[in-house]
Protein backbone atom coordinates (compact mmCIF):
# COMPACT_ATOMS: atom_id res chain seq x y z
CA UNK A 1 0.00 0.00 0.00
CA UNK A 2 1.30 3.44 -0.91
CA UNK A 3 -0.02 6.99 -0.74
CA UNK A 4 2.87 8.34 -2.81
CA UNK A 5 1.88 11.33 -4.90
CA UNK A 6 -1.24 11.97 -2.83
CA UNK A 7 -2.05 14.99 -0.68
CA UNK A 8 -3.93 14.97 2.63
CA UNK A 9 -5.43 17.39 5.14
CA UNK A 10 -5.70 16.32 8.78
CA UNK A 11 -7.57 18.77 10.99
CA UNK A 12 -6.58 18.99 14.64
CA UNK A 13 -3.27 17.29 13.91
CA UNK A 14 -0.87 19.21 16.11
CA UNK A 15 -0.78 16.51 18.76
CA UNK A 16 -2.50 13.38 20.02
CA UNK A 17 -4.57 11.26 17.68
CA UNK A 18 -4.47 13.80 14.86
CA UNK A 19 -0.68 13.94 14.88
CA UNK A 20 -0.52 10.13 14.77
CA UNK A 21 -2.77 10.17 11.68
CA UNK A 22 -0.67 12.84 9.98
CA UNK A 23 2.58 11.02 10.69
CA UNK A 24 1.24 7.72 9.34
CA UNK A 25 -0.17 9.29 6.18
CA UNK A 26 3.22 10.93 5.61
CA UNK A 27 5.01 7.65 6.31
CA UNK A 28 2.89 6.04 3.58
CA UNK A 29 4.00 8.76 1.15
CA UNK A 30 1.30 11.43 1.32
CA UNK A 31 2.09 15.14 1.61
CA UNK A 32 0.18 16.51 4.58
CA UNK A 33 -1.46 19.78 5.57
CA UNK A 34 -1.25 19.94 9.36
CA UNK A 35 -3.82 22.01 11.26
CA UNK A 36 -3.88 23.35 14.80
CA UNK A 37 -4.89 26.54 16.61
CA UNK A 38 -1.43 26.94 18.15
CA UNK A 39 1.41 28.02 15.83
CA UNK A 40 4.18 26.43 17.89
CA UNK A 41 2.29 23.13 18.14
CA UNK A 42 1.64 23.11 14.39
CA UNK A 43 5.29 23.92 13.67
CA UNK A 44 6.43 21.05 15.90
CA UNK A 45 4.12 18.64 14.08
CA UNK A 46 5.47 19.73 10.69
CA UNK A 47 9.02 19.37 11.99
CA UNK A 48 8.26 15.84 13.23
CA UNK A 49 6.96 14.85 9.80
CA UNK A 50 10.00 16.38 8.09
CA UNK A 51 12.33 14.60 10.52
CA UNK A 52 10.71 11.31 9.57
CA UNK A 53 11.33 12.02 5.88
CA UNK A 54 7.86 13.29 5.03
CA UNK A 55 6.45 16.47 3.53
CA UNK A 56 4.09 18.83 5.36
CA UNK A 57 2.89 22.40 5.71
CA UNK A 58 0.79 23.96 8.45
CA UNK A 59 -2.42 25.99 8.53
CA UNK A 60 -3.05 27.60 11.91
CA UNK A 61 -6.77 28.29 12.26
CA UNK A 62 -9.79 27.07 14.26
CA UNK A 63 -11.93 24.51 12.48
CA UNK A 64 -15.58 25.40 12.04
CA UNK A 65 -15.77 28.47 9.80
CA UNK A 66 -15.96 28.07 6.05
CA UNK A 67 -12.94 30.38 5.76
CA UNK A 68 -10.77 27.82 7.57
CA UNK A 69 -11.95 25.04 5.28
CA UNK A 70 -11.10 27.18 2.28
CA UNK A 71 -7.63 27.91 3.66
CA UNK A 72 -6.94 24.23 4.28
CA UNK A 73 -7.93 23.14 0.78
CA UNK A 74 -6.08 26.05 -0.81
CA UNK A 75 -2.94 25.13 1.14
CA UNK A 76 -3.06 21.57 -0.18
CA UNK A 77 -3.63 22.59 -3.79
CA UNK A 78 -1.08 25.41 -3.75
CA UNK A 79 1.60 23.43 -1.89
CA UNK A 80 1.14 19.98 -3.42
CA UNK A 81 -0.84 20.55 -6.61
CA UNK A 82 -3.90 18.54 -5.58
CA UNK A 83 -5.99 17.15 -2.73
CA UNK A 84 -6.82 13.46 -2.35
CA UNK A 85 -7.55 12.82 1.34
CA UNK A 86 -9.36 14.67 4.12
CA UNK A 87 -9.30 13.51 7.75
CA UNK A 88 -11.63 15.54 9.98
CA UNK A 89 -10.25 15.07 13.47
CA UNK A 90 -10.36 18.50 15.14
CA UNK A 91 -12.45 18.66 18.28
CA UNK A 92 -12.95 20.09 21.73
CA UNK A 93 -14.72 18.94 24.89
CA UNK A 94 -17.04 20.86 27.22
CA UNK A 95 -18.30 18.07 29.45
CA UNK A 96 -21.19 18.85 31.82
CA UNK A 97 -24.46 17.26 32.78
CA UNK A 98 -27.47 18.48 30.83
CA UNK A 99 -28.74 20.82 33.55
CA UNK A 100 -25.34 22.48 33.90
CA UNK A 101 -24.46 22.74 30.20
CA UNK A 102 -24.61 26.29 28.85
CA UNK A 103 -25.49 27.43 25.33
CA UNK A 104 -21.82 28.24 24.85
CA UNK A 105 -20.74 24.77 26.00
CA UNK A 106 -23.11 23.20 23.49
CA UNK A 107 -22.43 25.53 20.59
CA UNK A 108 -18.63 25.37 20.94
CA UNK A 109 -18.52 21.58 20.62
CA UNK A 110 -21.10 21.45 17.84
CA UNK A 111 -19.31 24.20 15.90
CA UNK A 112 -15.91 22.50 15.92
CA UNK A 113 -16.92 18.84 15.57
CA UNK A 114 -20.10 18.93 13.50
CA UNK A 115 -20.02 22.20 11.59
CA UNK A 116 -16.26 21.93 11.15
CA UNK A 117 -16.62 18.48 9.64
CA UNK A 118 -19.36 19.76 7.32
CA UNK A 119 -17.48 22.84 6.10
CA UNK A 120 -14.20 21.00 5.56
CA UNK A 121 -15.81 18.09 3.73
CA UNK A 122 -17.88 20.42 1.54
CA UNK A 123 -14.77 22.34 0.51
CA UNK A 124 -12.70 19.18 -0.06
CA UNK A 125 -15.42 17.60 -2.18
CA UNK A 126 -15.38 20.66 -4.42
CA UNK A 127 -11.68 20.06 -5.03
CA UNK A 128 -12.18 16.32 -5.55
CA UNK A 129 -14.92 16.91 -8.12
CA UNK A 130 -12.86 19.52 -9.97
CA UNK A 131 -9.95 17.07 -10.21
CA UNK A 132 -12.24 14.27 -11.35
CA UNK A 133 -10.14 11.52 -9.80
CA UNK A 134 -12.13 10.63 -6.71
CA UNK A 135 -11.08 11.19 -3.13
CA UNK A 136 -11.17 9.91 0.43
CA UNK A 137 -13.13 11.41 3.33
CA UNK A 138 -12.33 10.00 6.78
CA UNK A 139 -14.28 11.47 9.68
CA UNK A 140 -13.44 10.71 13.29
CA UNK A 141 -16.41 9.52 15.31
CA UNK A 142 -16.63 8.15 18.84
CA UNK A 143 -18.25 5.37 20.89
CA UNK A 144 -20.04 8.23 22.64
CA UNK A 145 -21.79 9.07 19.38
CA UNK A 146 -22.77 5.43 18.94
CA UNK A 147 -24.02 4.72 22.45
CA UNK A 148 -24.10 7.95 24.47
CA UNK A 149 -22.08 8.90 27.55
CA UNK A 150 -22.89 10.64 30.82
CA UNK A 151 -22.03 14.33 30.76
CA UNK A 152 -21.52 14.57 27.00
CA UNK A 153 -24.77 15.80 25.44
CA UNK A 154 -22.90 18.10 23.05
CA UNK A 155 -20.16 15.63 22.11
CA UNK A 156 -22.61 12.73 21.64
CA UNK A 157 -24.82 14.85 19.39
CA UNK A 158 -21.85 15.97 17.29
CA UNK A 159 -20.34 12.52 16.89
CA UNK A 160 -23.67 10.86 16.10
CA UNK A 161 -24.31 13.60 13.54
CA UNK A 162 -20.94 13.00 11.91
CA UNK A 163 -21.77 9.33 11.30
CA UNK A 164 -25.14 10.35 9.89
CA UNK A 165 -23.47 12.76 7.49
CA UNK A 166 -20.94 10.11 6.44
CA UNK A 167 -23.73 7.71 5.44
CA UNK A 168 -25.42 10.46 3.44
CA UNK A 169 -22.19 11.48 1.71
CA UNK A 170 -21.47 7.87 0.79
CA UNK A 171 -24.71 7.93 -1.22
CA UNK A 172 -24.18 11.35 -2.76
CA UNK A 173 -20.53 10.92 -3.73
CA UNK A 174 -20.40 7.33 -4.95
CA UNK A 175 -20.65 8.23 -8.63
CA UNK A 176 -17.71 10.63 -8.28
CA UNK A 177 -15.48 7.88 -6.88
CA UNK A 178 -15.31 9.59 -3.48
CA UNK A 179 -15.58 7.42 -0.39
CA UNK A 180 -16.73 8.61 3.03
CA UNK A 181 -16.16 6.62 6.21
CA UNK A 182 -16.10 7.18 9.95
CA UNK A 183 -13.41 5.88 12.28
CA UNK A 184 -14.45 5.14 15.88
CA UNK A 185 -11.20 5.24 17.90
CA UNK A 186 -10.57 4.08 21.45
CA UNK A 187 -7.13 5.30 22.47
CA UNK A 188 -5.13 6.82 25.30
CA UNK A 189 -5.43 10.59 25.35
CA UNK A 190 -4.78 13.43 27.76
CA UNK A 191 -8.17 12.81 29.33
CA UNK A 192 -7.60 9.14 30.09
CA UNK A 193 -4.36 10.01 31.86
CA UNK A 194 -6.48 11.42 34.71
CA UNK A 195 -8.72 8.36 35.09
CA UNK A 196 -7.70 5.74 37.68
CA UNK A 197 -9.37 2.98 35.63
CA UNK A 198 -6.85 3.44 32.81
CA UNK A 199 -3.83 4.37 34.93
CA UNK A 200 -1.87 1.14 34.57
CA UNK A 201 -2.33 1.20 30.79
CA UNK A 202 -1.34 4.84 30.43
CA UNK A 203 1.65 4.43 32.74
CA UNK A 204 2.86 1.37 30.81
CA UNK A 205 2.62 3.32 27.56
CA UNK A 206 4.50 6.27 29.04
CA UNK A 207 7.33 3.91 29.99
CA UNK A 208 7.47 2.60 26.42
CA UNK A 209 6.00 -0.76 27.45
CA UNK A 210 3.08 -2.62 25.91
CA UNK A 211 -0.25 -2.07 27.64
CA UNK A 212 -1.62 -5.11 29.52
CA UNK A 213 -3.66 -7.50 27.38
CA UNK A 214 -6.79 -6.70 29.42
CA UNK A 215 -6.79 -3.20 27.96
CA UNK A 216 -5.62 -4.02 24.44
CA UNK A 217 -7.85 -7.05 23.85
CA UNK A 218 -10.74 -7.02 26.33
CA UNK A 219 -11.38 -3.27 26.13
CA UNK A 220 -9.92 -2.58 22.70
CA UNK A 221 -7.98 0.29 24.26
CA UNK A 222 -4.57 1.23 22.94
CA UNK A 223 -2.40 4.03 21.63
CA UNK A 224 -2.95 6.67 18.98
CA UNK A 225 -0.59 4.74 16.71
CA UNK A 226 -2.96 1.74 16.90
CA UNK A 227 -5.63 3.85 15.19
CA UNK A 228 -3.44 5.45 12.54
CA UNK A 229 -3.12 2.34 10.37
CA UNK A 230 -6.87 2.23 9.78
CA UNK A 231 -6.87 5.88 8.74
CA UNK A 232 -4.08 5.21 6.24
CA UNK A 233 -5.86 2.15 4.86
CA UNK A 234 -9.14 4.02 4.34
CA UNK A 235 -7.15 6.75 2.55
CA UNK A 236 -5.65 4.26 0.10
CA UNK A 237 -6.69 2.85 -3.26
CA UNK A 238 -7.15 -0.53 -1.56
CA UNK A 239 -10.18 0.90 0.28
CA UNK A 240 -11.97 2.06 -2.89
CA UNK A 241 -14.82 -0.37 -2.20
CA UNK A 242 -15.34 0.73 1.41
CA UNK A 243 -17.75 3.63 1.92
CA UNK A 244 -20.51 4.66 4.31
CA UNK A 245 -19.01 2.58 7.11
CA UNK A 246 -18.29 3.22 10.78
CA UNK A 247 -15.18 1.25 11.71
CA UNK A 248 -14.01 0.95 15.30
CA UNK A 249 -10.41 0.38 16.29
CA UNK A 250 -8.36 0.39 19.47
CA UNK A 251 -5.53 -1.72 20.82
CA UNK A 252 -5.74 -5.17 19.22
CA UNK A 253 -9.44 -4.84 18.31
CA UNK A 254 -11.04 -3.94 14.97
CA UNK A 255 -14.83 -3.59 14.75
CA UNK A 256 -17.43 -2.85 12.11
CA UNK A 257 -20.33 -0.94 13.65
CA UNK A 258 -23.79 -1.72 12.30
CA UNK A 259 -26.13 0.86 10.91
CA UNK A 260 -29.18 1.35 13.16
CA UNK A 261 -31.68 -1.39 12.43
CA UNK A 262 -35.05 -2.32 13.94
CA UNK A 263 -34.51 -5.08 16.50
CA UNK A 264 -38.19 -6.01 16.86
CA UNK A 265 -41.36 -5.38 14.85
CA UNK A 266 -45.00 -5.86 15.80
CA UNK A 267 -48.26 -5.03 14.00
CA UNK A 268 -51.74 -4.06 15.16
CA UNK A 269 -54.59 -3.75 12.69
CA UNK A 270 -55.90 -0.20 12.66
CA UNK A 271 -52.74 1.21 14.27
CA UNK A 272 -51.53 1.60 17.82
CA UNK A 273 -53.52 3.71 20.29
CA UNK A 274 -52.06 4.94 23.56
CA UNK A 275 -54.22 2.36 25.34
CA UNK A 276 -52.96 -0.45 23.12
CA UNK A 277 -49.37 0.57 23.84
CA UNK A 278 -50.04 0.81 27.57
CA UNK A 279 -51.46 -2.68 27.54
CA UNK A 280 -48.88 -4.38 25.36
CA UNK A 281 -45.64 -2.39 24.95
CA UNK A 282 -43.66 -3.98 27.78
CA UNK A 283 -44.92 -7.47 26.97
CA UNK A 284 -43.80 -7.02 23.36
CA UNK A 285 -40.56 -5.14 23.84
CA UNK A 286 -39.66 -5.19 27.54
CA UNK A 287 -36.98 -7.86 27.16
CA UNK A 288 -35.59 -6.23 24.02
CA UNK A 289 -35.11 -2.64 25.16
CA UNK A 290 -31.68 -1.40 24.09
CA UNK A 291 -28.89 -0.49 26.49
CA UNK A 292 -27.35 2.97 26.64
CA UNK A 293 -23.77 4.03 27.35
CA UNK A 294 -20.79 1.75 27.60
CA UNK A 295 -20.08 -0.55 30.52
CA UNK A 296 -16.56 -1.54 31.52
CA UNK A 297 -15.71 -4.82 33.24
CA UNK A 298 -14.01 -4.72 36.65
CA UNK A 299 -10.27 -4.34 36.49
CA UNK A 300 -8.31 -7.52 37.25
CA UNK A 301 -6.91 -7.39 40.76
CA UNK A 302 -3.33 -6.92 39.56
CA UNK A 303 -4.39 -3.83 37.58
CA UNK A 304 -6.39 -2.18 40.35
CA UNK A 305 -5.15 1.38 40.90
CA UNK A 306 -3.62 2.33 44.20
CA UNK A 307 -5.49 4.62 46.56
CA UNK A 308 -5.78 8.11 44.99
CA UNK A 309 -2.66 10.14 45.49
CA UNK A 310 -2.99 13.71 46.85
CA UNK A 311 -2.18 15.18 43.44
CA UNK A 312 -4.78 13.08 41.63
CA UNK A 313 -7.70 15.05 40.22
CA UNK A 314 -11.16 14.47 41.59
CA UNK A 315 -13.13 11.83 39.67
CA UNK A 316 -15.21 13.14 36.79
CA UNK A 317 -18.97 13.10 37.05
CA UNK A 318 -19.35 10.46 34.34
CA UNK A 319 -18.23 7.07 33.14
CA UNK A 320 -14.79 6.81 31.55
CA UNK A 321 -14.62 7.77 27.89
CA UNK A 322 -11.49 6.79 26.06
CA UNK A 323 -11.83 8.56 22.80
CA UNK A 324 -11.91 12.36 22.66
CA UNK A 325 -10.97 13.08 19.08
CA UNK A 326 -9.04 16.23 18.53
CA UNK A 327 -5.89 18.12 19.22
Automatic annotation (TrEMBL):
Keywords: Oxidoreductase. Residues 6-194 form the Ketoreductase domain. Residues 291-327 are annotated as: Disordered. InterPro entries: KR_dom (IPR057326), NAD(P)-bd_dom_sf (IPR036291), Peroxisomal_Beta-Oxidation (IPR051687), Sc_DH/Rdtase_CS (IPR020904), SDR_fam (IPR002347). SMART domains: PKS_KR (SM00822). The keyword Oxidoreductase applies. PROSITE patterns: ADH_SHORT (PS00061). Residues 306-320 have a biased composition (Basic and acidic residues). The keyword Oxidoreductase applies. This is SDR family oxidoreductase.
Amino acid sequence: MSLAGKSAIVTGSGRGLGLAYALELARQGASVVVNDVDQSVADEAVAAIHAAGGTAVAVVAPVGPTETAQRLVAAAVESFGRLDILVTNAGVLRDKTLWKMTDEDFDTVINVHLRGTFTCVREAVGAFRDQGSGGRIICIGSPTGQRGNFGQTNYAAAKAGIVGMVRTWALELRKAGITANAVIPVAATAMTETMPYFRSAVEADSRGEAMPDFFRRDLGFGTADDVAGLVAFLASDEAAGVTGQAVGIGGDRLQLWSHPEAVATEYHRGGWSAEDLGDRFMDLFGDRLQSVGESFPPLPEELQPEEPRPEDPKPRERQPAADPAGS
